[in-house]
Known about the structure:
mainly alpha, Rna Polymerase Sigma Factor, Chain: A, Arc Repressor Mutant, subunit A, 9 helices, elongated
Amino acid sequence: MSPPHPQDESLGASSASEAEQDACGALLVRIQRQDEQAFETLYREHGSVLLATILRLVRNRALAEEVLQDVFFEVWTRAHSFRAEAGTGRAWLTTMCRRRAIDRVRSVQAQQNRDFAEGLKQAPEVEPDIQTEALNHVEAIRLNTALKGLPAEQARAIAMAYYQDLSHSEIAAALSTPLGTVKSRIRDGMKRLRAQLEVNDAR
């Protein structure tokens, strides 16, 4: 039997050395070599933790499980993009999960918006409540005007929370910003917003 190619052996030893302190990373290195046992071990040992990460973003068990399957398909097909020197295997997987989950949330939201628009087209015409419609329009104008007076990062975080109904954690993930920073922006922004609305009402 011929010995392994020296270059391949050197590359494998280097990758293994970089991941030896990272069990998850070590499994990914083995998956880069199409090691099915390593893939099964990765799923068994880390699947539940990754599912919890996804579930915090999509908030739907069935949808989260679909995203997890997509993530592990990507792990098998793109494990070669993992680099031990760039970070741990767990961090690489978590980033992938968050990216996939946010993409799925946006996709679902877009579909819901399309369904809603289509529903409006097909719905029978109803006599509008003119007074309620006018009050809602005025309130929307007041809020938008007040938001424009806030710093951009505060206005954006508040808009994502109240118009898109996202949680603080979801906003942090979408903006790639620490959770504490997002909470501070919303808290400080709401104080400014209330003050601005009070000033406008007093005029």
